[in-house]
Design brief:
The structure holds two protein chains of two kinds. Chain A is mostly helical. Chain A is 64% helix and 3% strand. Chain A contains eight helices and two strands. Chain A has a two-stranded antiparallel sheet with strand order 1-2. In chain A, helix 5 packs antiparallel against helix 6. The longest helix of chain A has 30 residues. Chain A is elongated. Chain B is an alpha+beta fold. In chain B, strands 1-2 form a two-stranded antiparallel sheet. In chain B, a hairpin with a 6-residue loop joins strand 1 and strand 2. The longest helix of chain B is centred in the last third of the chain and has 22 residues. Classes of the chains: A mainly alpha, B alpha+beta. Chains A and B meet through helix 2 and helix 6 of A and strand 2 and helix 1 of B.
Chain lengths: 206, 52
């Protein structure tokens, strides 16, 4: 199936909802925030000089709110355990998964650790910026402590560049287009559901 | 090449950690691209052959 055909595949009766509109909105808003953060972080380092600090911390706040929203929604409104690695994943790592494959769960775990590390360190670094809420205080932490905070933030940011490249690669793979479509349109076809997922592990109501 | 950047403390004495080494940024990007290429090659090589 070509990419264009993928977008309209299946009649409405054949479609299984995979991502609700609020979750798709969360994903794409987070993607935009991530790209702005990575661009404002690294373009000046690569030589493109511009006033990046305010865009960066404001977008960082947006990302923080989005991630908090996602954690709350995943914990109380969605099936939290669908993203957790379980015994079935370890018994048969390449077999038909539930809603998410072992690879997707491992990716999510890695990116969650990196984003939470970047957010936590970023919120501390925020104290060194003049904002409408406070005047910057570079002595809030010791020099050694700032060093650790900056190291975590910088390493997490560079690792997130790697992770974004990998994520875009998988999103563009033809055998994964049905998943990319589901993040745009919200659904997969019943055939894709039955072909790619263990229907006992994902009941398509989660 | 280190993961981190250090500087001499302005108060004298030991080196102080000041952050990550951003000279590694191209390597992190290459790691992502390298993974993608390796995965694509692996999938192409291990794909079941189509019947003629």
């Amino acid at each position: 199936m070509q990419m264009g055909e993928e977008m309209t595949a299946g009649s409405p009766a054949d479609r299984i909802e995979r991502h609700k509109s609020v979750d798709r909105a969360y994903h794409w808003l987070m993607a935009v925030a991530m790209l702005i953060l990575l661009a404002t972080a690294f373009l000046p380092i690569l030589g493109l000089k511009f006033a990046w600090v305010d865009i960066h911390w404001i977008t960082g706040l947006v990302l923080t709110v989005l991630v908090l929203f996602h954690i709350l929604r995943a914990s109380f409104w969605q099936n939290f355990w669908s993203m957790m690695i379980d015994r079935e994943d370890l018994k048969d790592p390449f077999g038909k998964p539930g809603k998410y494959s072992l690879a997707q769960k491992l990716y999510h775990l890695a990116i969650a650790v990196l984003i939470l590390g970047a957010i936590a360190s970023g919120l501390l670094m925020w104290r060194k910026v003049d904002t409408p809420f406070w005047q910057r205080d570079p002595y809030w932490l010791s020099t050694d402590s700032w060093g650790v905070v900056y190291a975590i933030h910088g390493l997490a940011a560079m690792a997130l560049v790697t992770m974004v490249i990998i994520h875009v690669y998988f999103a563009l793979r033809p055998d994964e287009w049905y998943l990319t479509r589901s993040m745009l349109r919200g659904w997969i076809t019943r055939k894709e559901y039955e072909d790619h997922h263990a229907t006992k592990r994902w009941s398509a109501k989660d | 090449m280190s993961l981190f950047h250090y500087a001499n403390s302005i108060y004298g004495g030991s080196e102080t950690l000041i952050g990550a080494n951003y000279e590694l940024l191209p390597w992190f990007a290459l790691a992502g691209v390298g993974f993608a290429i390796a995965h694509a090659v692996f999938k192409a090589v291990t794909a079941p052959s189509k019947p003629r």
